[in-house]
Amino acid sequence: MSHTLGIRQAQKQKTRQALLDAALQLLAEQSLSSLGLREVTRAVGVAPTAFYRHFRDMGDLGVALVEEALGSLHTTLVALLAATGDGDGEERIAATVELIVAYVRTHPAHVRFIAREQHGGVQAVRSAIGDQLTLFAEEVKDQFAQEPESAGWDPDDLLMLARMYVDHMVMTASALLEAAPDAQERVAASARRQLRLVSLGRHHWLDEK
Fold first, then answer.
1. pTM, two decimal places
2. Rounded distance, CA 28 to CA 116, Å?
3. pLDDT in tens, 69-100
């Protein structure tokens, strides 16, 4: 019996992932609010009623795509910050931009989905993206708080800095996605310069208070 249940569960997970993959592919040319449930199930080859065994509605599917797109980045980002814990040096700047470049290269459809739906028409998805970015900012803030450069910083100011860092990552990913292949290094170089400006501001922030 347990073997049969295991097979059924594996098949259910396979169908769920197929629905996510099909939706992501279809979303390359349209927004989630314009994508129909029947389009997705037709692409997978299942009946529309099968959709509801996995998702409540298209918004629920969109939230799952947000988690798929951004969830795995938390561990990677925190590890990067911890490994380059010398504050705002060139190693951290280069590693941060390389992380973004690599993610855009390997997950372009996910990046496009997040960029489009961050301000899109499906409230649940906008909220899910906002929640993920807020969590990123909190994680960055926690790492920054452990560094000598943050001595004397107000927690709210440190969170503001972390949000700038996360917003910069999102904007860089969007810019890389839209750039022609021969222009991507220019985008990356610009992103590194912008992070240096953030670094410079961090070192002199308390001087202005």
1. 0.90
2. 10
3. 998 888 898 889 888 866 568 899 999 999 99
